[in-house]
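Recap from last week: sequence in, structure out.
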Amino acid sequence: MRRGLLNGRPRFLSFIKLLIIVALNYFNAIIFRKVIHMKTKKILRYFVIIILLAVFAYSLYNAAALAKDFNDMNRELKQVQAEFIVDEDVSEGGLEIKWTELLEKNSDVIAWIDIPGTNISYPVVQGKDNDEYLRRNLDKVYSKKGSIFVDATNLNPFYDYNTVVYGHNLMNSSMFSELKKYSKQAFADENNIVYVYFPDGSVFEYKVVSFHKIDAVNNDAFYNTGIMDKNGFLSLVKQNNYLKFDVEEADISSILTLSTCTNYNKNERYIIHAVLLNQ
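Predicted structure tokens:
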């Protein structure tokens, strides 16, 4: 009996050791998994922070670049106005332009548009197509602001029944960005005159009579420069008009259409129509 007990103790101790080893391995495994889990969470947290910092830095860089672009645009536009405007008495269409110097700079310039009460006062060009000045300035070099330009299909600009003029809608309120203000009747009432100056010294005076927000794809009739049905075109201008149309249709000899993007939808446009008061 005693020998059997003695012989059984080593086996029992071995069994206990085995249990201890198994238990230690089990607890080590749990601890290891927890450590790995904690490390993984920590790594993921750092990774998310790095991504957020990278996005913030990229956004900051883009904002700074955009601000620089807008500052450059404003400086360029002010330089053009300072270089080629002699007299700024615009209240009665008295703007005086240095036409000789302006045409030497760019022979595609055909007019100067000025709308008192807004920032709109720019040379107007006409290219061989509607892409030429979309992203080119007066020097014909790339510029995000592009130029104010007449539709290439206008064969006799400002004498055609409908002359279409385009300009970008920029966040710095330059070019044609202020056209959207004409959605309000009060603003239109106070700033309803558009002056167009020509190299021969003549000045056309227009009155704003309509404002629309349109889908350009489905409303291309607004951009028709070869109007045959004048009554039909006037009906289109009056339809869904934000403003009061307070001119006699019989007195309308020519219409000026100004168009810019809304920046909400790639096909949406703000357009205003102004009728010629003198010629």
